[in-house]
Each structure stands twice: as structure tokens, then as C-alpha cells.
Write a structure and sequence with these properties.
Four Helix Bundle (Hemerythrin (Met), subunit A); about 5% strand; about 200 residues; 2 strands; 6 helices; mainly alpha
Length: about 200
Amino acid sequence: MALVSLGKIIWAMGVVAWYLIRRPAERRARRHRIVSNQRSTRDKVGLVSASVGLGLIPGLFALTGFPHEATYSARPISLLLGAVLYAAAMWIFRRTHKELGKNWSISLEIREEHELIASGPYALVRHPMYTSFLLMAGGQAFLLANWIVGLAGFAGFAVLFFLRVDKEEQMMLEFFGSRYREYMRRTKRIIPYVY
């Protein structure tokens, strides 16, 4: 049981790190005017799904142990893998926010003087923030010894990713044209050299 509690603590520390990285980007983004907003119901459904799968369900488990029936014995190697995946997710998450700077947005928006970022993690993949969410889901699955909670992270990520990524790339193609098409040609979506 002590390992289950340790996994919950590591997961909670990751969530705090996520918030501490995200909050300054939100404040900074408010200072830059939006010139194109393509928010939609699909976008909102994706964001809610990710919040439920990567936040609400694991948070409920961490606080209450619910759903109890799906809990299993935690193993030290699982906690180690989960901690490594979560740390990698936070490192990429931080780097994406740093690289994006004033271009960052929680939604499908183009800001005034928007730039095409192709440095840092963006040199390897077009959507490293989604890469970080995928790693968070993997970390969650290893840290929180519960089958439902583990699957919830992947499900929340998948809904967000598949509802948004095509629309996001279309928006970038419309705004940046051939520059973005060339960028797409030389990078993968979320897994370097694979996908």
C-alpha cells in the first residue's frame, strides 16, 4: 500500500509542476491580441476529455482510491518508469511553452505577429505538447496502480489529439502556407522519426 501512496504523491507533484509551467504562459498570452480564433465544440470536447482523463479521474483516485475494484499492487519498477515518463513529459511541456512564448494558446488561435516555431522540441515534432500529454498518460498509467485510471489518461489524450490535430494543422497551413507544408515534410507529428 505504501507504493500505491508513493505513486499518488509523485503523480500529484507532476500535476503541480504542470500547473506551474502552464500558468505563466496563460498570463503572458492574455497580453497578445488574437487575430484568428477557430475554437469549436470539438475543441472544447477535446480539452474536457483531456482534463477528465489526465486530471479528474486520477485526482479522484489519488484522493479517495475510487474505483477500488480496479486497483492492483504497485511495483517499484512501475513507479520508476512512471516517474521517468512524467519527468520527461514535464521537461518537454516546459520546453514547448518556452519555445512558443507569445504564440502559445490553450485553444486553436493565431496571435498577433504569430511565428512558425521550428526550434527546440519543434525541430523534431510538430506537436511536442501532445507528445508531453502522451508521456503524462504513460506516466499516470505506471504511477497510479489502477487499470481504469491508467486507461483514462490514454483515452483523454486520444480524444484531445484526434479531435484537434488535423484542424490545428489546417489552421497552420492556412496561416503559414508553404512554410508550414515544408515543416510538415521534415517533421513527424508527435513521435520523432515514427509518427
